[in-house]
Write a structure and sequence with these properties.
Elements lengths: L7 E6 L5 E4 L5 E4 L1 H7 L1 H9 L7 E2 L4 H9 L16 H13 L3 H17 L1 H11 L2 H11 L8 H8 L3 H31 L20 H11 L7 H14 L24 H17 L9
Parallel strand pairs: 1-3, 2-4
Antiparallel strand pairs: 2-3
Length: 297
């Protein structure tokens, strides 16, 4: 489409313009080289080596994104853009463009608005971070995706994640596998601790396998293993272990029936310490556990 047939942006249509930018949706921005060069290393280099021409400079950004960026090049023309009111996708589009054109002041200002988006729209942030090769932002966003059920809305998440989607699926699978293995290890530790229980009456071992009911701890582990968000359930585990430590019991359901002498209330008092020490150890383990798998695109 010929430039003469295109409409200019109402806020950026200066009569003394010496350069015209054309957005991906065919809107013209008649602006000044001096303003662009003062705010962007990329435009400064472009105009230093390029020849003056009446042709519009074609850019890949939409008119909305360019308008927000150019507003930062003309701080005296209009009130500043309140980026906190923009949708997450618009914030990220502006941030990507600011970094692309090396508009460092704009990029720094926008980065403070990108951080909250990490927890609002992490899949989209992962894609943006990959585009910008921003490893710090990438790791923050990838970690935030673990709090969501990646299979709960695959159509939407796939579009938002873009090229990173397959890598995210693989990472969630490997992360969940490590979480599951650790939960099963914890379950085994509790089982072994319960085998250390002694009957008050006959002094023989009280075994979990004989007459004990399924306790809340086992139910909790089963539920956590079945949960789809892959994140390590640190807070839930720490809260549970804290309750157990305070109660001095195994989820308020210590098996006290002895399979040897068939008596109830058979748990020897000294054995209780074994359980409490186990909960203290597991609480510390839950607080410090971190899967070792690494996200790679």
């Amino acid at each position: 489409m010929d430039d003469a047939q295109l409409l200019p942006h109402t806020s950026f249509n200066f009569a003394d313009s010496d350069v015209t930018l054309r957005s991906s949706d065919n809107v013209l921005f008649r602006v000044h080289r001096a303003n662009l060069m003062a705010c962007s290393v990329t435009f400064r280099d472009m105009f230093h080596v390029g020849k003056e021409t009446d042709e519009a400079v074609q850019l890949s950004e939409t008119s909305s994104t360019l308008a927000h960026l150019l507003a930062m090049c003309y701080p005296a023309e209009d009130p500043p853009v309140d980026f906190s009111l923009l949708a997450s996708g618009d914030i990220l589009a502006c941030y990507e463009a600011a970094v692309k054109y090396q508009m460092w002041v704009a990029g720094l200002a926008l980065r403070s608005f990108v951080e909250p988006v990490v927890h609002i729209d992490p899949f989209r942030v992962v894609r943006s971070a990959h585009t910008l090769s921003d490893s710090v932002l990438m790791q923050k966003a990838v970690k935030a995706t673990l709090e969501l059920d990646i299979l709960g809305n695959t159509a939407e998440y796939r579009v938002k994640a873009g090229i990173t989607w397959t890598s995210l699926l693989e990472y969630h699978f490997r992360y969940k596998r490590e979480v599951t293995e650790e939960l099963l290890t914890m379950q085994k530790i509790v089982f072994e601790a319960r085998l250390a229980g002694k009957c008050y009456h006959c002094a023989r071992d009280i075994s979990l396998a004989n007459g004990a009911k399924v306790e809340p701890w086992q139910e909790l582990v089963t539920r956590m293993i079945g949960m789809r968000p892959a994140a390590w359930p640190r807070q839930q585990l720490v809260e549970y272990f804290s309750i157990c430590i305070g109660a001095g019991s195994v989820g308020h359901s210590i098996a006290t029936h002895c399979q040897h002498c068939s008596r109830d209330n058979a748990l020897k008092s000294g054995s209780l310490r074994v359980y409490v020490d186990t909960w203290i150890s597991l609480k510390s383990r839950a607080e410090t556990f971190a899967p070792t798998c690494v996200f790679n695109v």
